[in-house]
Amino acid sequence: MVKVKRQVKKNSETNPTDCGKHTTLSVGQVAKRSGIAVSAVHFYEQKGLIQSRRNAGNQRRYHRDVLRRIAVIKTAQQVGVPLAKIAHALSSLPDNKAPNVEDWAHMSSLWLDDLNHRIDTLIALRDNLSNCIGCGCLSLHHCWLRNPGDTLSQQGCGARLIDPD
Amino acid sequence: MVKVKRQVKKNSETNPTDCGKHTTLSVGQVAKRSGIAVSAVHFYEQKGLIQSRRNAGNQRRYHRDVLRRIAVIKTAQQVGVPLAKIAHALSSLPDNKAPNVEDWAHMSSLWLDDLNHRIDTLIALRDNLSNCIGCGCLSLHHCWLRNPGDTLSQQGCGARLIDPD
DNA sequence: GCTTGACCTTAACCATGCTTGAGGTTTTAG
DNA sequence: CTAAAACCTCAAGCATGGTTAAGGTCAAGC
C-alpha cells in the first residue's frame, strides 16, 4: 500500500461527535452504537452481512445504514435464525444503499413466517409438556414426548413401546 | 482388563428381539430406539447426561430408563436448553433408578417456565416486527427494534437517534 | 472355527459465532 | 511533534454439540 501524506484538513467523517447526515462511521462507532464488539463488526463484514469502504488510511468507514442491518441481525438472532440465513436475507437488500420500507417489509415477512413457525412449535411443545409429563402420561406408550415423530424402529416386538415401566 | 471366557449360555440381554422387562439395552439399541446416533449416545454419557454399566466384555448396557432421559434431552434441546443445563436438571433425578412421576413433573415444570419465557419473548419479537418493520416505523427513532434494550451510546449529539434516514 | 457386525477407546475434526493476541499502522489530542 | 488511542491483518483459541477415523476387541451365526 502506498503511504499517503497526512491530510491537512481534519476529516469530519471520523469525528465522534459529528452529527452530520453525510458522515460515515468508524468501526468503533458502529460497535458502540450497535452494542456489539468491534470484533463482531469485523466478523459480520467478513461473513458478508455488512459492508464498508476504506478511507485513505485503510480504515473502515460504514454507511449509517449498517446500524439498521445490525439491528436486524441481532433481532433475527434472538429469533434463532443462523447467520448464514440472515446473510442470505440481507443480500436481497440493495448493497450500500438505504433500503426502502418495502425492502424491509419483505424481509420482515420472511422473519415473521419463521417466527410464527417457531412460536407454534414451542407452544405445541409446551402443551405436550403440560399434558404429557405433568400428568404422568410419560409412562404411557402413546405419549408424544416419548415417541416424537414416530421414528421408532420397526423391528422387534417392542417397537411401539419404548418402556412400559 | 482380564479376558473372560465366552459364556456358554446365550445372553438374553443382548438379544435385539427380546421383549423382557428385565433386559438391558446395548448402545446400538439405544441409538436406534431413541433416534440418535451411537456417537451421540457416547457423547451424552461422557457429558454425564446418561449412565451405563458394562457387561463382561466391557460393552455398555443401558437401563431402559435411558430412553426417557434421551427423550427429555431431545425435548429440552428443541426448547433451546443447552446440554449443561439439561445435565444439571437430570442430575436431580435418581441415578439409574426409574424416576417417578413427581421427579419428571418437577423437571418439566422447570422446562415449562423456560418455555413460557421463550414463547413470550418470541411473541413480543413478532409483534414488534409486525408493528415496527411492517409498517415502516423502522425509520422512526423510537422503534424498539432499532434501539433494543436502550443500549445506545450516550455520548455525542446523535445518541438517541440511530439513523434518521 | 471363523467371519462379520457391533462395540471399544482415543483423538482429531467440523460448524457456528465469535474473542483474543501479536505485530504493525493511522489518527487524534495536547 | 509525540504519545496514546484506535485501527489494521492474520492466526489461533474458545464453547457448544456433536461426527469421523484409526486401530483393536467382542459376540453371534453358520
UniProtKB/TrEMBL annotation, chains A, B:
The segment(s) forming the HTH merR-type domain are 24-92
Q: Which PROSITE patterns match?
A: HTH_MERR_1, HTH_MERR_2
Q: Does the keyword Metal-binding apply?
A: yes
- Report which superkingdom the organism of origin falls in: Bacteria
Entries under InterPro entries matching the protein? DNA-bd_dom_put_sf, MerR-type_HTH_dom, MerR_fam, Redox-sen_tscrpt-act_SoxR
Ranges where the record places region Disordered? 1-21
Any single Pfam family the record assigns to this protein? MerR_1
Does this entry carry the keyword Transmembrane helix? no
Keyword list (alphabetical) reads: 2Fe-2S, DNA-binding, Iron, Iron-sulfur, Metal-binding
Question: PANTHER family from the xrefs?
Answer: REDOX-CYCLING DRUG-SENSING TRANSCRIPTIONAL ACTIVATOR SOXR, REDOX-SENSITIVE TRANSCRIPTIONAL ACTIVATOR SOXR
Q: What name does UniProt use for this protein?
A: Redox-sensitive transcriptional activator SoxR
Source species:
Bowmanella yangjiangensis
This protein's gene is called: soxR
